[in-house]
Design goal:
about 750 residues; alpha+beta; Beta-Lactamase; MetI-like fold; 2 domains; 6-stranded antiparallel β-sheet; 14 strands
Length: about 750
């Protein structure tokens, strides 16, 4: 592909494009500077005419200081003309301007400017001069800035005699900022153009190149850039570069919290993965009858606000809980590591269940039938065939729950007690003490275990082949469980569901209780007040989640296909960037987005777009992990055959990959919608007067002990998600390719 002709073509295109962009940049810069100079000169001339020779010393000082109201950043000093010395001397104004004038008054350009003022002619100096604005006691600047200098005369009432001159300095920040912004845009446009030209000229599969480029742009802009802003803050102390924040964060106090996060994450991920696998296996690989009901119930913990189950646990099993204290009269406390593991396992095992359901559904049962035909027992077939083939999904599920547990702060905030975890430490530093730098540093410590687990998982999966879908998948599968085992599995799952239902009954009961814990009388007032105050939040939340769901689903499947099927430079970096948002606390993500997108050229704060982007980026890792786990089971020969017959990347993806990974695709979209509806940590910083969020309103009601209103809105949220789940499964039906009929042997 790298022929002499194409290299010459690329160089010619690059030279012509860069020359054109350079000329446009130069012309725009010159035009803006000329416009800024003319505007400043006109405004300064008007300001000079407001001088009154009857000003007292205080009035003169106030007048010189008022120039800031006309031109932001400008400073001025008044020079009185002396008939005795025939010279101009400082009379009032900015110390920085006076000092600059005294140091430079003997320069030829300054002498010429004073002569012009004597003859009542204004003058702007050609060169910029450095002014140390830190000399002004009311100025926060700490360094000198290059500034434009204007000299304007003041005359008596007749206009014939000079009384003095006003010297005004205008920092070049505005022009410099505009040029810096324009330079950034031109560099970015040039880089994108040259990369596109390179892909078109030097790659055999331009579509793949464009998809990889698009993914890198997305994760670079919405993952790397905000993280860079957070990293930068962690090295800034009182406006200066410093390692003080990191020294504090690596102290034994915070290392204990890091160890607490690791223990909580490992326990939660392990228990959640085991429970999720039990549910997924029972539903997808046995002849269990109540599959739809069990699937709906198993996903309930993830479709409610993350702190609702903690509130239910506290109300039922807290120090004054309904069950623990009033019924069982126990003194045991639910606060601490045990309570956290319980709540997070209940709340996060659906992540593992949803991931493993798609994986187990994809396994071709012919390999299990072969093992049984060779006289293997059902247990041996499960242990040596089914479980190893499901291993990529098991590891993916464990990793997703582990990273989700590390980043969770809502549940530890309510249930940690004396147990310390790093996410709550970071949250309290950011929200309680407004220490963004320390919060950023603590949050980045959570990346170390997450990235370690991610790399170990990738290394393990890459060592073996897990292909089972080869183009002729079986439409039936053999039940690997006999009746006693199936009944035991169902009993365990139903017992877990019964406990979870008790928690949700508590929420539902709270909708009709006047004041939980104090007044248990029946009322319907909560519904009217909650719906009236929450209607706008409900509408905004559903709208934004509906926009983000298909975008995240398609983007996740495209990224998974590129990562699994294609080789390109930077693939490992792309994987890490995609997984990174899931490991960082949502609080830090929200603050990072505010820092990154609250200024040109990308001004998104206050819009609905930044909330949608946050939804997509935060939940993208789940979809990518589901897609990767599913693609590991599909023989690449199917796609290669389509490519050999002339299908391009788009056609292969649309007609081959998407139908085969349909379960993972549906799971990805479902999970994105759920998490978008129930997000709290990052969204609480990104909402605005125009766009509000339902979970933030629920959280506010919970903080104010308005449990009745919070229960009503939580119930409404759960109902909305269940309806959308039903419609999604109705519209996007599972194809016959992945439908399974259970048979017994």
């Amino acid at each position: 592909m790298f022929t002499k002709r194409r290299i010459i073509q690329f160089i010619a295109i690059a030279v012509l494009f860069l020359a054109a962009m350079g000329w446009i940049y130069h012309q725009l810069s010159v035009s803006f500077r000329e416009y800024a100079d003319e505007r400043n000169f006109n405004e300064i001339s008007l300001f000079a005419r407001t001088y009154d020779e009857g000003f007292s010393q205080d009035e003169l000082s106030a007048w010189t200081g008022s120039v800031r109201n006309m031109i932001p950043g400008a400073r001025s000093a008044y020079l009185a003309y002396s008939e005795e010395t025939f010279d101009f001397e400082p009379a009032a104004g900015s110390e920085a301007v006076i000092t600059m004038f005294q140091d430079s008054r003997e320069l030829p350009e300054f002498i010429s400017a004073l002569d012009s003022c004597y003859y009542l002619e204004p003058m702007k100096l050609e060169a910029d001069y450095s002014v140390d604005y830190s000399l002004d006691p009311d100025d926060a600047a700490s360094s000198s800035e290059a500034s434009q200098i204007y000299f304007l005369p003041t005359a008596d009432e007749s206009g014939a005699y000079v009384l003095g001159a006003i010297i005004i300095t205008v920092p070049g920040v505005a022009a410099t900022g505009y040029e810096s912004l324009m330079r950034t845009l031109f560099i970015g446009a040039s880089a994108i153009f040259l990369i596109i030209a390179f892909i078109l000229l030097f790659t055999r599969d331009p579509m793949t190149g464009f998809l990889v480029l698009a993914l890198f742009v997305i994760v670079g802009l919405f993952v790397a850039f905000p993280i860079f802003e957070a990293i930068r803050l962690s090295f800034i102390k009182e406006g200066h570069f410093s390692f003080a924040i990191w020294k504090s964060c690596l102290s034994p106090t915070y290392l204990v919290a890091l160890w607490g996060s690791l223990k909580l994450g490992v326990l939660t991920a392990s228990f959640s993965t085991v429970i999720g696998f039990l549910f997924a296996f029972l539903i997808e690989r046995t002849s269990f009858r109540q599959k739809k009901l069990m699937t709906t119930l198993a996903t309930m913990p993830v479709i409610s606000p993350p702190f609702s189950l903690s509130l239910s646990i506290i109300l039922l099993f807290g120090n004054n809980g309904l069950i623990s204290k009033q019924i069982l009269h126990l003194n045991a406390s639910i606060y601490g590591l045990g309570g956290l593991v319980l709540v997070e396992t209940i709340g996060m095992f659906p992540i593992a269940f949803m991931t493993l359901s798609g994986v187990l559904k994809q396994i071709d049962s012919t390999v299990e039938d072969a093992a049984l035909d060779l006289s293997a027992t059902r247990w041996q077939a499960f242990r040596t065939v089914t479980l190893p083939l499901a291993l990529p999904g098991v590891l993916s599920a464990w990793l997703l729950v582990f990273t989700n547990s590390l980043a969770d702060f809502a549940n530890p905030l309510l249930l940690s007690g004396d147990y310390r975890v790093l996410s709550t430490e970071a949250y309290m530093l950011v929200t309680g003490r407004n220490d963004l730098g320390s919060g950023s540093a603590l949050s980045f410590l959570l990346l170390l275990p997450t990235l370690t687990a991610f790399l170990v998982q990738r290394f393990w999966v890459s060592r073996k082949s897990y292909v089972t879908v080869t183009g002729k998948p079986s439409t039936t599968l053999t039940d690997l469980t006999n009746k006693p085992v199936r009944l035991a599995l169902a009993s365990v799952c139903w017992a877990i569901m019964a406990f979870i239902l008790v928690l949700y009954v508590t929420i539902l009961a709270g909708c009709f209780v006047r004041n939980w814990g104090i007044d248990y009388s029946f009322t319907l007032d909560n519904w009217g007040e909650a719906l009236a105050r929450g209607w706008t939040s409900i509408r905004d939340t559903v709208t934004l989640a509906a926009i983000a769901t298909p975008i995240a689903g398609v983007l996740a499947m495209v990224a998974a296909m590129l990562i699994v099927r294609k080789k390109f430079p930077g693939k490992r970096l792309l994987e890490i960037l995609i997984m990174t948002p899931y490991a960082i606390p949502g609080t830090l993500i929200g603050i990072s987005y505010i820092l990154a997108f609250n200024k040109p050229p990308i001004l998104l704060v206050g819009t609905g777009a930044i909330i949608v982007i946050n939804y997509v980026i935060r939940e993208l890792p789940v979809g990518v992990e589901n897609g990767i786990a599913a693609l590991h089971q599909i023989d690449p020969a199917i796609e290669e055959a389509a490519s050999d017959l002339g299908a391009d990347v788009n056609t292969v993806f649309r007609t081959i990959v998407m139908p085969l990974v349909r379960p993972a695709f549906i799971t990805s979209m479902s999970y994105t919608f759920v998490r978008s509806m129930t997000a709290v940590s990052a969204i609480i910083f990104l909402i605005s007067a125009r766009w509000n969020h339902l979970t933030v309103l629920i959280f506010n009601f919970s903080e104010n002990l308005r449990f009745g209103l919070a229960s009503v809105l939580s119930t409404v949220l759960i109902a909305i998600v269940l309806v959308v789940f039903f419609l999604m499964n109705l519209i996007v039906r599972d194809g016959k390719l992945t439908e399974k009929t259970i048979s017994s042997r």
